[in-house]
Amino acid sequence: MQTGVGKILVVVAIILGGGQAQAQNLLEKINQGLERANRVLAGGGPSAAVSSGNAMGASPSEAQLQRIASAMNVSGKPVEVEVMYQEAKGLIGEILLTTSCIFSSPGRMLAKHKAPQGVLDIWSVAMNMQYHNRSQCVDVQRVDAWKVEARNAFSFRVQFVSEQSGESQEAFFTLSKQPDGVWMIQRGSMH
User: Fold this and answer.
1) What is the pLDDT of residues 21-77, one digit of tens each?
2) Strand pairing partners for 177?
3) Beta-bridge mates of residue 21
4) What's this model's pTM, rounded to 2 decimal places?
5) Are 128 and 116 in contact (CB under 8 A)?
6) What would the pLDDT profile of 119-154 be if each residue is shown by its tens digit?
7) What is the DSSP string of 7-39?
8) Cα angle value 129/134/140 (rounded, 5°)
9) Beta strands 153-161 and 168-177, pairing class
10) By the 8 A CB rule, do 138 and 106 touch?
11) How are beta strands 114-121 and 183-190 bridged, if at all?
12) SS3 108
């Protein structure tokens, strides 16, 4: 029987389309970012405890991870986007996890993925939902509106919804492939 962590790794592997090692790497990156941010916000040092379900963020449930995987892998992307999507889906998965579960400055957490001269106008989805229970991540309801922007860039829309309150929020992202082959966020904005 798989442990909870094992199940989460399997779902993250589905999101990334890769193996369990790639999924473990993504989860470790997210956890490291959460730990650093929590220490800074708490005013603690490296040994400060990480608390979950606070204003900083929450951990996604297995069902939420599965919804992210399903939303990302819906068919119907234009053929030109599908090729770029396959290269950038690790970044897209990280964007979706960060924006749905980080409640304090998800834009700061994603800044390391911002392209030079990129614009990242992202704030907390959950904090803009008046009735959402902040001990839980917001659900990713759909990822759509895939569009080729250039030979090395594409855009998409993300719809978030609170399972508890029914409130919703949208975010729009444009990703671009850099000269070194790395995909980065060219533009991210909330509506």
Assistant:
1) 655 666 665 555 445 444 433 433 322 222 333 446 788 999 999 999 999 999 989
2) 183
3) none
4) 0.73
5) no
6) 998 888 888 889 998 889 999 999 999 999 999 999
7) HHHHHHHHHHTS-HHHHHHHHHHHHHHHHHHHH
8) 65
9) antiparallel
10) no
11) parallel
12) helix
Continuous H helices in the chain: 4-16, 20-42, 62-72, 79-101, 106-110
Q: Which residue has the tokens 């990822």?
A: 143
Single-letter code of the amino acid located at 51: S
Per DSSP, what are the bridge partners of residue 180?
A: none
Encoded tokens for 137: 């991540």
Closest-CA residue to 81 (of 173, 4, 179): 173
Distance, CA of 69 to CA of 65 (rounded, Å) = 6
CA distance linking residue 27 with residue 92, whole number of Å: 14
